[in-house]
Amino acid sequence: MENVNFSINLSKEEGQKDKYLLFYLGKGQYMLEIRYIKELIKLQPILSMPGEDSTMKGVINLRGQAIVIKDLHQKLRQEKIPLTHAGCIIIVQVEKKQMGFIADRAVEIIGVEEKNIESFLDSQRNESKEIIRGISIIKDKMSLIIDAKKLVEG
User: Fold this and answer.
1) Among 29, 66, 102, 116, which is 20 to 30 Å from 137 by CA?
2) Domain contains 120
3) What is the pLDDT of residues 8-61, one digit of tens each?
4) What CATH number should be reported for the domain holding residue 102?
5) What DSSP line would sit under the chain, residue for residue?
6) pLDDT 10s digits, 97-139
7) What is the rounded distance in angstroms from the CA atom of residue 70 to the CA atom of residue 54?
8) What domain of life is recorded for the organism (predicted)?
């Protein structure tokens, strides 16, 4: 198993932008705050679990630790596309809880100022709204920002 490595300076001075990982699920562009990402790993076999919910793909063994893996395509209403070598598993950690999810492609780490994030106001209640923290325009395309805490809790 080979890790997709990246390093980043997490210290933030006044006026600096928060750091986010920009990634794709289907045709949707998403971001996740980098401070919650433990690591990115290549796709690997996932052990299916009986009685799982619609987003739970199964578990993987990551250096002796069982990590729950979710597939967010359905929850975020994105069409599944065939996985390629660009696909990866993003391991997220909030406090002591860890989980992973499949991304079709991790693109880059970008800086976004809080003032450029709009809150996700939607009159409809749906599952995807529960894990979306905000919206920002990145590279002339709307990016939904995933709330890592809600993702790990849910």
Assistant:
1) 102
2) yes
3) 444 455 557 899 999 999 999 999 999 999 999 999 999 998 776 778 889 999
4) 2.40.50.180
5) --EE---------TTPPEEEEEEEETTEEEEEEGGGEEEEEE----B--TT--TTEEEEEEETTEEEEEE--TTTTT-------TT-EEEEEEETTEEEEEEESEEEEEEEE-GGG-EE---SS--GGGGGEEEEEEETTEEEEEE-HHHHHH-
6) 999 999 999 999 999 988 888 886 653 445 556 789 999 988 8
7) 9
8) Bacteria
What pTM, to 2 d.p., does this model score? 0.81
| Residue 4 domain flag | no
- Indicate the residue type of 69: I
β-strand pairing of 56-62 with 132-138: unpaired
Domain that holds residue 112: 17-153
Residues in CB range of 86: below 8 A, 6 or more apart: 104, 105, 106
Please give the tally of structural domains in the chain.
1
Contacts of 143 (CB under 8 A, 6+ apart): 22, 29, 30, 31, 135, 136, 137
Residue 77 lies in a domain: yes
